[in-house]
Amino acid sequence: MKRCCYLALGLGCSWSVWGEGGHPAYQPPELLTWSSGLQVVLSLGFVLALMAGVGWFLKRYSWYGKPRSGDPLLRIVGSVAVGQRERVVVVELENTWVMVGVAPGQVESLHVQPKPEA
């Protein structure tokens, strides 16, 4: 008994803790209830919807890469892929359409014509 008292005092524990039978039983907190789970799911849905909305807004109104004054000097009318990495692009430049072939490391003018009225 004497050794137990010295051991308890040596570990920094008081005699009263050992005399009362120790600490009450540990009960872990409830981490996930229906209300907290619903809150997590709704918060995640809100964040994803907000990201999609911002992406749609930026794409719709194209604030990025747009010239600030008037119409752009150079405008892409259309393009079509003719291979895995090759494209034919029609570019408008000052009422003139230029058909350009684009490949990795190479750009070549194919045809030039005035802009059609229609």
How would you describe the overall organization of this protein?
With 118 residues, the chain is α+β, with helices and mostly antiparallel strands. The chain has a domain of 41 residues. It is 36% helix and 27% strand. The protein is built from 3 helices and 4 strands. It has a 4-stranded antiparallel sheet, with no helix packed on it. A hairpin with a 2-residue loop joins β2 and β3. The longest helix is centred in the middle third of the chain and has 28 residues. The protein starts with a helix and ends with a strand.
The counted number of beta strands is 4
Low-confidence stretches: none
Radius of gyration: 37 Å
Mean pLDDT: 79
Q: How are the strands ordered across the major sheet?
A: 1-2-3-4
Estimate percent helicity.
25-40%
Q: How would a crystallographer describe the biggest sheet? A: 4 strands, antiparallel
The helix count comes to: 3
What distance lies between the first and last C-alpha atoms, to the nearest angstrom? 106 Å
Bulk shape: elongated
State the order of secondary-structure elements, H for helix, E for strand.
HHHEEEE
Structural class: alpha+beta
Strand content: 25-35%
